[in-house]
Request: fold
Amino acid sequence: MLDTHCGIDELHVEGQWYERAQGPLDDGSGNPPDDWDNPEQMGTITRVDETTLVFTDEVGHREEFVLRPGASEAKRACD
Reply:
């Protein structure tokens, strides 16, 4: 499952923070794009290597996330 409420940007897995490799993905207003569920998208997170995760779902989304070394919290709060 991927949190999408404030767009697709970060991922927190096993105590580590990752960010979308291609930068934030949203509708221009901080929400997920129209073809994404809100507040979360069901899918699978797969570890590619020590610093890379990939999210995929049944709709065909595929997003790569890279480790934010040393990060201890989200880049921004999402309400």
In short: Residues 17 and 69 are 8 Å apart (CA to CA). The chain has a mean pLDDT of 96. The chain has one domain: 2-67. The first strand starts at residue 2 and ends at 3.
